[in-house]
Automatic annotation (TrEMBL):
Keywords: ATP-binding, Kinase, Membrane, Nucleotide-binding, Phosphoprotein, Transferase, Transmembrane, Transmembrane helix, Two-component regulatory system. Its EC number is 2.7.13.3. One of its GO terms (cellular component) is membrane. This is histidine kinase. SUPFAM superfamilies: ATPase domain of HSP90 chaperone/DNA topoisomerase II/histidine kinase. It catalyses: ATP + protein L-histidine = ADP + protein N-phospho-L-histidine. The keyword ATP-binding applies. It comes from the Bacteria. The keyword Transmembrane helix applies. Pfam families: HATPase_c (PF02518), HisKA_3 (PF07730). It comes from Amycolatopsis endophytica. The chain crosses the membrane at residues 54-87, 99-119, 125-143. One of its GO terms (molecular function) is ATP binding.
Length: 355
């Protein structure tokens, strides 16, 4: 299938064609009439490289072989190797290897049978040609394998990113709902207003979770119009408010955090979200302190709790902290998560700041 090409590619191919003619074909010692046909054919074949590499390789290889048999060129298939490289990258590996192997074997057989009587020169030329073509094949396959692995890594990284986002949204919302529902269970049956308040909080949290989940799923769509804004520093107060509604006392302090990149703002939000979610899940009734500060070109995020009043403990494991650590490290930061000496748990992240 032909591919779109730009002027730079055409100029590069033309330059290689002219260089090969100047180095390996000139001066034309004899048979100028035949050379007048082969040289333009060679140049035309090289110029077809970017659009039709298979055709280009076939034309250039045949022209080079004919020129070698007629004694018009000493080109060890360098021009053919130039047209072979994109073909190696695009072609199916097994089918292509068989085709090239047969073509090379045929070329060697023709050169050995129809070449000059100077067998040493013929063998030397054949060996150099084989090295040039084999090296091109190996290089092309290595580049193709590297590109394939890079594409696979990109897909895996995207899957991990989506998994982290979905986990952060669902885990936080379900944890808040669970805590709120647990409190509602202990509300007296005749206290309808209080019970209604708890149920309305659960409803709001569920709706917020659906909105966040749509935003996450929209972020992986190809059309930018389908993408909703991701949460950031400005959404921390609303996040803290939802956790307060679940019965957790939260103190939030944000200092000098204006103008952070969107990726850093999203990371800060997810770090705080994970810290508050863990506090609500493992230390019900606790008091949390959240601090976000930019200082010395670093963004420091700290989420601490006092352990609560119901004997909850953090295990420091789970996919949430793993995802947060991956997110922080992808931005070049560091994350620490450990129990506090006086009870409770501390989550601290240091991210590169602006400037």
């Amino acid at each position: 299938m032909p591919t779109s090409i730009g002027p730079r590619q055409v100029l590069t191919d033309a330059g290689v064609a002219v260089l090969c003619v100047a180095v390996f074909w000139l001066p034309l010692a004899h048979s100028p009439g035949v050379a007048a046909v082969l040289v333009p054919a060679l140049v035309a074949g090289v110029l077809l490289r970017s659009r039709w590499p298979a055709v280009a390789f076939g034309v250039v290889a045949v022209v080079t072989l004919a020129g070698a048999l007629l004694g018009l060129t000493a080109d060890p298939f360098v021009a053919a190797a130039w047209t072979l490289y994109p073909l190696v990258i695009r072609a199916h590996r097994l089918r292509f290897s068989r085709v090239v192997s047969v073509a090379l074997a045929a070329a060697v057989a023709v050169l050995l049978v129809a070449g000059s009587t100077a067998w040493e020169d013929v063998l030397r030329y054949v060996m150099v040609s084989l090295l040039v073509l084999a090296g091109t094949v190996r290089l092309g396959m290595a580049i193709r394998r590297e590109r394939t692995e890079a594409a696979q890594r990109a897909v895996l990284e995207e899957r991990l990113r989506v998994a982290r986002e979905v986990h952060d949204v669902v885990s936080h919302s379900l944890g808040t709902i669970a805590v709120t529902a647990g409190v509602a269970v202990h509300v007296a049956a005749d206290d309808a207003p209080k019970l209604r308040d708890r149920l309305s909080r659960i409803e709001r949290t569920a709706k917020d979770a659906l909105t966040d989940l749509r935003a996450v799923l929209g972020a992986v769509r190809e059309r930018p119009a389908d993408r909703a804004p991701q949460p950031g520093i400005g959404d921390l107060e609303a996040l803290a408010g939802r956790v307060r509604d679940a019965g957790i006392e939260v103190t939030l302090a944000v200092r000098n955090a204006d103008g952070l990149p969107a990726s850093t703002g999203l990371a800060v939000y997810r770090i705080v979200q994970e810290g508050l979610t863990n506090a609500a899940r493992h230390a019900p009734g606790c008091r949390c302190e959240v601090t976000v500060a930019v200082r010395d070109r670093e963004v420091v995020v700290e989420v601490t709790d006092d352990g609560g009043t119901m004997g909850g403990t953090h295990d420091g494991g789970g996919f949430g902290l793993i995802g947060v650590r991956e997110r922080v490290e992808s931005l070049g930061g560091e994350l620490t998560a450990c129990p506090r000496d006086g009870g409770g748990f501390a989550l601290r992240a240091v991210l590169p700041g602006p400037g």
